Amino acid sequence: QVQLQESGPGLVKPSQTLSLTCTVSGGSITTNYYYWSWIRQPPGKGLEWIGYIAYSGSTYYNPSLKSRTSISRDTSKNQFTLQLNSVTPEDTAVYYCATQEPNSGDFGSWGQGTQVTVSS
User: Fold this and answer.
1) CA dist., res. 120 & res. 108, Å (int)
2) What gap in Å lies between CA 84 and CA 120, rounded to an integer?
3) pLDDT reported for residue 83
4) Short-list 40, 56, 52, CA closest to 92
5) Is 52 exposed, middle or buried (0-12, 13-18, 19+ CB in 10 A)?
6) Phi, psi (deg, nearest 5) at residue 100
7) Mean pLDDT across the stretch 47-70?
8) Which of 24, 27, 62, 63 counts the highest number of beta carbons within 10 A?
9) Which helix (H) or strand (E) is 15 found in, with range?
10) Which segments of 3-47 are extended strands (E)?
11) Which residue in 92, 67, 97 sits closest to 81, CA to CA?
């Protein structure tokens, strides 16, 4: 069973870069046939998919966030990382990493989520 754990700062100042890491255990980000995804949920709102890095290393982003988003990976540590630039208070949310099935698009395993607040 794949397990995921998010880590990173809980407070980011406006205009700075939000950086979160997802550490994967029980599976490999290069051999498991998944899209390794980031999703967020702002307070009082629904889930918003941010983007993914595939087992192949290719990436795909939500068009509404694409200009500010980068997802990369460290295969030696079995981790993948989200960077969101030029954040505003509207980026305040609980951020999750998760596995996504390429064929169905269904999400499978989720991390527990990490709260990120954008505030000066």
Assistant:
1) 35
2) 17
3) 98
4) 40
5) buried
6) -130, 130
7) 97
8) 24
9) none
10) 3-7, 11-12, 18-25, 35-41
11) 97
Tokens for 108?
């499978």
Question: Which residues does 45 contact at the CB level (< 8 Å), separation at least 6?
Answer: none
- Taking residue 29's Cβ as centre, other Cβ atoms within 10 Å add up to 23
Radius of gyration of the chain (CA): 13
Helix (H) or strand (E) holding 115: strand 114-118
Closest to 34 measured CA to CA, from 116, 109, 90 = 109
Q: Are strands 79-84 and 18-25 parallel, antiparallel or unpaired?
A: antiparallel
pLDDT at 75 over 90: yes
Residue 50: strand, helix, or coil: strand
